[in-house]
Amino acid sequence: MLDIEEVWRDTDYFVLTEDTALGRSFATRHPTVFVSHVALGQARLGRPFLMLARAMRNCFESFRHIRDLRPQVLITTGAGSTFFAVIWARLFGAKVIVLDSLARVRSPSKFARIAGPAANLRIAQSVESASAWEDAVGFDTVRKRGPYRGAKEPLVFATVGATLPFERLTRIVTEAKASGEITESLILQVGDAEPVEGDMRCVQNLAFDEINHILARASIVICHGGTGSVVTALKAGCHVIAVPRRFDLGEHYDNHQEEITEALAALGVLRVANTTEELVEAIRAVRSAPAQVVERDMRDLIAYMTAAIRGWFPPGGLASPLAAREPLRVPMLEPRPAAAKAGGAI
Questions:
Q1: What topology is assigned to 145-294 in CATH?
Q2: Do domains 2-141+297-323 and 145-294 have the same CATH topology?
């Protein structure tokens, strides 16, 4: 969503997201409301009743936020937890833009297919994916910029992402460190799992600012295949080794992380590892080559979205209904103190 900030930053906006560490970090800078996490994949992983309970809660929370805040435009980037917000927004008269996840390279996500009929505008972040999504427009936004020329520290940052633990990634990283293959300093972020002991700094969660500070220093990043983690590290000039979560191992709702990491590996900007042996091989390989930097070229996509919104609301039309009432009163959170850590400090 930050990549398209130019579309919404000058409006009377608010953010609707899940109550995660990353969401709360975002809420220290932007007016934010929270909804419960829900995804169809919860049923695929054998938890249908959990999915139904979360869906009911999410539906009520979304209704309350949309009813109280009455957005004129709702932009969603494909998270399943915003499905009910899409429906309620349309029922309250808002225009809806569904911008599908960057992870969907070959075909649209289930969320995009389900929410698409309720959308006024459907946008895929892959031309190939757009061709498989009725009435969608596609933009290829990832560009390979070339080798990183800056200086980095001998530091490895391993991250499982915002919240979900990832035992396999944690295990293969700690095995590589214990065997001496990771000679660099190590910061390991494990999500909502117990911190591990060892010659490293281990944390559960990190604020977004602290992650960016670490990425500016780290030479190697080992991360799950989430697009946020992968692309942010690549933009920071880090060597990236991705460990995609797999559906067959019960690590995620589907295999979209394999889809995006395979596409980026084919572009030559990262390596993929699934085992300790593959991780060790990848670490040895990246040390002898410059990191490849990518950038997001969002100009055409932003221009397209902006033109659509201006078409719906002539100059002044988007602002005037909001100006006629009290400004949105959505609070921002106070930054939380840093998470507790185990192991040596770095």
A1: Rossmann fold (3.40.50)
A2: yes
pLDDT(39) > 90: no
Give the CATH number of domain 2-141+297-323: 3.40.50.2000
Q: Distance between CA 68 and CA 49 in Å, rounded?
A: 29
- Backbone φ, ψ for residue 200 (5° rounding): -165, 170
Tokens of residue 182, six digits: 């990771």
Distance (Å, whole) CA 71 – CA 156: 42
Tell me the residue type at 285: A
Please tell me the distance from the alpha carbon of residue 156 to that of residue 104, in angstroms, as a whole number: 28
Q: Which of 113, 128, 44 is nearest to 83 (CA)?
A: 113
255-291 confidence digits (pLDDT tens) = 889 999 999 999 999 999 999 999 999 999 999 999 9
**Which whole-number Å values give the CA distances from 266 to 15, 259, 261, 270, 330, in the listed order?**
34, 11, 8, 8, 43
Cut 0.90: pTM above it: no
Cβ(323)–Cβ(18) below 8 Å: no
pLDDT of residue 316: 64
Side-chain-side CA neighbours of residue 195 (13 Å): 18
The length of the chain is 346
Domain ranges (residues) in the chain: 2-141+297-323, 145-294
Distances (CA, A) of 162 to 5, 18, 61, 288: 21, 11, 22, 30
The mean of the pLDDT values for the chain is 88
- CA distance linking residue 178 with residue 339, whole number of Å: 24
Contact by Cβ (8 Å): 24, 40:
no
Q: What is the pLDDT of residue 343?
A: 34
Burial of residue 148 (number of CB atoms within 10 Å: 0-12, 13-18, 19+): middle
